[in-house]
From TrEMBL:
CDD domains per record: GGDEF
PROSITE patterns: GGDEF
Catalytic activity: 2 GTP = 3',3'-c-di-GMP + 2 diphosphate
Protein name in the entry: diguanylate cyclase
Its EC number(s): 2.7.7.65
Cofactor(s) essential for the protein: Mg(2+)
Main location (coarse class): membrane
GO CC term, one of those recorded: plasma membrane
Compartments where found: Cell inner membrane
């Protein structure tokens, strides 16, 4: 096996990548759509936006691969960032550099790879937009140009994201190691630790902007049946896709977390109950609108949502309990619906305990 060489400008390249603050951040709905479209366009099983880190490649967006990262020393993208243009391996079995690579001889049994480097404004290659497939493939000249065009779109979006106010706030609030500990490895949204971190912070930010902190407690309906009837791999795919749909249904500044199991909590800043309910309805319809592909099956699933507005005098944990209580009512009233819990002072809190 041929491991990728280290670029001569690796120290600077790595510093540029670190400065982008892309590593170990939540999945992005726009990049998720891009890899989905690219996968359909090129008819390949797997599409990745891969960032080549010190000793790993980490996937900012992925379709068709369940793991969030792989070692750099076996990566094809490590080779791709050394190129000025497309790095193409049409059949790994016929290429002595890669025929004995672990990801060729073991799952995902890679036979085809095409990686277009992604560059920063300073011209450093930080990763790739890449295609992977378990069968050999050939790319025409037109397809090669099209892949380069799609990589340009990915580059442009990453640059805009780096410049955004939301990204600046994230860089100021959390170190990379903190982010890594707060990211759910399966769904690539914030985990329970992330929820606990952002909950008081978002309430403070809402008050500073004369808004209200909205909490949406979301739970997939009858999710246990998915695991029981189709296995845990199918269940993992459902959770991944639901996280994508929830993230796409809310706004870029909203915080999406997986609090555990099939439960997700969204933190948002809104003006009133009506605005919060609209966000809850967008989440509900995004899950129910079309079936979810889970391996060889398509599953029609729904989600129930409980929501609450945190009062200025209320501990946000108490507001979260009210949202959970509203979720309980949504389940009891038929599921696949949005219920709201109003704040009624200490009386409401006592009723929840």
């Amino acid at each position: 096996m041929l491991s990728p060489e280290i670029p001569v400008n690796e120290r600077i390249r790595q510093q540029v990548l670190d400065n982008q603050e892309l590593l170990d951040t939540p999945a992005d709905p726009y990049l998720d759509v891009l890899v989905k479209v690219v996968g359909e366009m090129f008819e390949v099983k797997t599409v990745l936006i891969s960032l080549v880190d010190r000793d790993r490649q980490w996937f900012k967006a992925r379709r068709g691969l369940d793991v969030p990262e792989t070692p750099r020393n076996i990566s094809f993208c490590g080779h791709a960032i050394l190129q000025d243009d497309l790095f193409l391996v049409e059949d790994t079995h016929l290429d002595t550099r890669f025929s004995d690579n672990p990801i060729v001889t073991n799952p995902p049994f890679l036979r085809f790879y095409a990686g277009q480097p992604l560059y920063t404004e300073s011209g450093h290659a930080i990763g790739t937009l890449c295609l992977l497939h378990p069968k050999p493939k050939h790319l025409s000249s037109k397809q090669k140009r099209r892949l380069k065009d799609m990589a340009t779109l990915a580059e442009g979006y990453l640059k805009l994201r780096h410049m955004s106010e939301h990204a600046k706030e994230l860089r100021a609030a959390l170190s990379r190691e903190q982010r890594k500990a707060m990211l759910d490895s399966l769904t690539q949204v914030w985990n329970r630790a992330g929820l606990e971190h952002f909950l008081p912070r978002e309430q403070t930010r809402a008050e500073e902007r004369d808004l209200k902190l909205g909490l949406l407690f979301c739970d997939l309906d009858y999710f246990k049946r998915v695991n029981d009837q189709h296995g845990h791999d199918a269940g993992d795919k459902v959770l991944w896709e639901c996280a994508r749909r929830i993230t796409a249904a809310v706004r870029p500044q909203d915080i999406v977390t997986r609090s555990g199991g099939e439960e997700f909590v969204v933190l948002t800043q809104v003006h009133d109950e009506e605005e919060l309910r609209r966000i809850g309805e967008r989440i509900r319809t995004s899950v129910a609108r079309t079936p979810i592909e889970a391996g060889e099956v398509e599953l029609e699933l729904t989600i129930s949502v409980g929501c609450a507005l945190a009062d200025a005098q209320e501990n946000p944990e108490r507001a979260l309990k009210r949202a959970d209580k509203a979720l309980y009512h949504a389940k009891g009233n038929g599921r696949n619906r949005v219920e709201f819990s109003a704040y009624e002072g200490k009386k409401t809190y006592d009723a929840l305990n």
